[in-house]
Amino acid sequence: MAFILRRLVFYCVAIFVAITFNFVMPRLMPGDPVDAMFAAAGGKLPPETLAAYKEMLGFVDAPLWQQYLQYLQSVVTLDLGPSIMLFPTPVTEVLSNTLPWTVFLAGIATILSIVIGCFIGLYASYNRGGFVDRVMPVFWQFIASMPQAVTALMIFFVFALTLRWFPLGFGFDPDLDPGLRPGFLANVAYHAVLPLVTLMLSMIATWVFTMRNAMVNVLGEDYIAMAKAKGLSSRRIMTHYAARNAILPVVTAVSMALGFAVAGQVFIETVFNYPGIGQLIIKSVAARDYPLMQACFLLIVICVLMANFVADILYVWLDPRLRK
To answer: What compartments host this protein (predicted)?
Structure first.
């Protein structure tokens, strides 16, 4: 319990620091959306109109510390104000419309990549020196070393633009009404294939090497040699003895991957025009939409920190040594 409390205090401090940086970073950018609007109008907007726009969008001329306190209050109350590029839609409403798409894509990609990568790593480690052990880790490392944007553009060009096997973008056909119907869900899955495959290709190598390295360490233990001496089958040794004890680093990697998967979808969602948080970040930065930009960045940081905290809790549950 003391370990969990220490970690909880650490993550609370980390969230506070993240909120502070999230407040400061956008304000280091030159200008603001109202100034850009004034410049686009050729300087013909009257000063009183400019002041009214700033007040309406929340850009008050107040000391920085006062703005910081107002920002902290808005974060605690979840009143993040209106989005500038989608005015007057509230930021929370914009996030509630886009977050499910990112969670869906990140969740499915993480689960499938874990299953595929851990199976390859498990098989390769138990058959060291074989074809799978010599070829598959190198192959997946080569795939993972390619930037996500390059992989996404190649897949988009081949399968969507050239072969036209899959749609060019968006989450579903615009002429369909959203709903929990088989036709709509099938269309959503069809549109998610290419971004899902792209995200999985960048993640599978992590699980291959994580599981393989953990298994190699476990297979050198004395109890594995004892199990072999007892005449147990290779399958039973691999699944019931080795895999169970090699799962700790995998659990940590899983929890962290769920958080980083949300952050890693920026380029993928942009290339495939997928309606998630990643694409929203690019648009908010281009529009200098401070409230929306800050909310997106803060959401990603919180996802990563929460995933790490879940990993700490699972570690305590799986490893009795940490309970002492």
So the answer is: Cell membrane
- Tell me: the pLDDT tens digits for 68-91? 888 888 788 877 777 877 777 888
Measured between alpha carbons, how far is residue 318 from residues 103, 269, 311, 322 in Å?
26, 35, 10, 9
Question: Rounded to two decimals, what is the model's pTM?
Answer: 0.77
Look up tokens 């897949």; give the residue: 155
Over 70: is that where the pLDDT of 101 sits?
Answer: yes
Give the contacts of 237 (CB within 8 A, at least 6 positions apart).
224, 227, 228
Between CA 249 and CA 145 the distance in angstroms is: 22
As beta bridge partners, residue 82 has: 90
Total Cβ atoms within 10 A of residue 248: 15
CA distance 285 to 233: 57
Question: Which single residue is written with the structure tokens 């990549």?
Answer: 113
Give the pLDDT confidence score for residue 238 in this predicted structure: 72
Strands (E), 147-251: none
Cβ neighbour number for residue 127 with a 10 Å cutoff = 13
CB environment 25-60: b (16+ within 10 A), e (fewer): ebeeeeebbbeebbeeeeeebeeeebeebbeebbbe
Arithmetic mean of pLDDT, 255-273: 74
CA distance 85 to 93: 13
Q: Scan for tokens 């291959």, then name that residue.
A: 208
Q: Which of 321, 319, 85, 120 is nearest to 203 (CA)?
A: 120
**Overall size of the chain counted in residues:** 324
Treating both helix axes as pointing N-terminal to C-terminal, what angle do 247-263 and 290-318 enclose, rounded to 10 degrees? 170
Contact 193, 166 (CB under 8 A): yes
Alpha-carbon 174 to chain mean position: 26
DSSP lists the bridge partners of residue 90 as 82
Angle at which helices 64-77 and 2-27 pack, to 10 degrees? 130
